Amino acid sequence: MSNSAQESTSTPLHSVSVAGVVVREDGRLLAIRRADNGTWELPGGVLELDEAPETGVRREVLEETGIHVEVDELTGVYKNTTRGIVALVFRCKPAGGSERTSSESTAVGWLTPEEVAERMSEVYAVRLLDALDGNGPHVRSHDGKRLTPAR
Predict the structure, then answer these.
(1) Which of 14, 20, 37, 142 is a plausible cystine mate for 61, CB 3.0–4.6 Å?
(2) What value does the mean pLDDT take over residues 87-110?
């Protein structure tokens, strides 16, 4: 086996996902209740190989919620150290469409920041709250349940 082949098999693989923090003019935030596990999260998903991150955010939000968005800016990078997923989170504005569920969502809602904190686990709620604070982009790691301190 060549040296580069050995490196590629022993190197951990990561996937890259994208998510949109869609902020309405009244300050409410777009969220979905996932069909697979019933948790409230941001709309988003795996970035396709040939896709720009901003394009992926627009596609994922539309697929999961029926809402078209304009992408404003990157507000955070979040790594799930357990699953090897790096999520790029972008603040967005709604730009048309109407709310609807999909095969991936059982509910679509516009939540207040307080409702986000109540309904979402810490590792997902922080993504929305980070997007609102204007001090990004934030870089955080978590184990799927809790944020882990920066090293």
Answers:
(1) 20
(2) 96
Q: Is 9 inside any structural domain?
A: no
Q: Give CA 11 to chain center in angstroms.
A: 25
Beta bridge partner(s), residue 100: none
Strands (E), 1-151: 15-22, 29-34, 40-41, 44-46, 67-80, 85-97, 105-111, 138-142, 147-148
Question: For the chain, what is the domain count?
Answer: 1
Range of the structural domain that residue 22 is part of: 15-144
Nearest CA to 61 among 24, 26, 108, 118?
108
0.70 exceeded by the pTM?
A: yes
Q: How would residue 10 be classed by pLDDT, with cut points 50, 70 and 90?
A: low
Whether residue 61 contacts residue 44, with contact meaning beta carbons closer than 8 Å, is answered with yes
| CA–CA distances in Å: residue 123 to residues 77, 79, 94, 97, 107 | 12, 10, 24, 28, 20
